Each structure stands twice: as C-alpha cells, then as structure tokens.
Amino acid sequence: MNSLNLAARAGRWSAAHWKTAVAVWVAFVAVAIGVGTSVGTHKLSMSEQSTGETARAEQILASAGFKTPASEAVLVRSHNRPSLTQRSGRPCRACSRSCGRCRR
Fold it and tell me: Nearest-5° angle of CA 60, CA 54, CA 64?
C-alpha cells in the first residue's frame, strides 16, 4: 500500500482521523481569516479596475487631476416667456418633476 500517491494517502488518513482533519481545517480557516484581517486590503481606483479603452480613458482622467465625477445639468430657458424661469410657473414644476429639481 505504500505505492499510493500523496492524495490517496491524505484521503485515507483523513477518513481514518476525521475529527482531527476537521479540527485542522477549522484552525486553518481561523488562521487565514486572522492573517487576512491583520494584513488589510488595498482598494483599487477606477483607473486600476478598468480594462481596455475604459482603462485608458480612466488613466487619462486620473492623470489630468479631475476630482469630481461627471454629472449632468439641465437648463430650461425662455426669452419670451418669463414663467418658464420662475419656480412658481407650471412649466418649471413639470420640468422639476422630470429632472429632479429646478433652479432659478
């Protein structure tokens, strides 16, 4: 029986000593969690996470020094109808419902 490979011998031993095998695995998991917690994590930036053209664009933006993320603004204006620019106007209320908010 000495001709069995390492996996077969380990399987035979763990079947014969299953309580010890389970205790060793639980200890291994506890040690792995402890080491992982003590080492900590390194959070990747958006430019480090991306791949392909997205990664290239993210690296360009990161090297340019932009700190704020991209956002969108909607401007509703009317030169001949002042009610569109007032908060009390009905068109402005309709716009604020669809856009989220309305500024003067």
Answer: 15
pTM: 0.41
User: In the prediction, which pLDDT does 55 show?
Assistant: 81
Cα 59 to Cα 45: distance, rounded to the nearest angstrom: 10
In the DSSP assignment, the letter for residue 51 is -
**pLDDT of 67 strictly over 60:** yes
103 and 77 in a common domain: yes
Asked whether the predicted pLDDT for residue 95 surpasses 70, the reply is no
Do 65 and 83 belong to one domain?
no
Position 24 pLDDT exceeds 80: yes
Amino acid found at 61: L
1 domain-assigned: no
- Overall domain count for the chain: 3
Domain range spanning residue 49? Answer: 43-70
Within 10 A of 25 (CB to CB), how many other CB atoms are there? 11
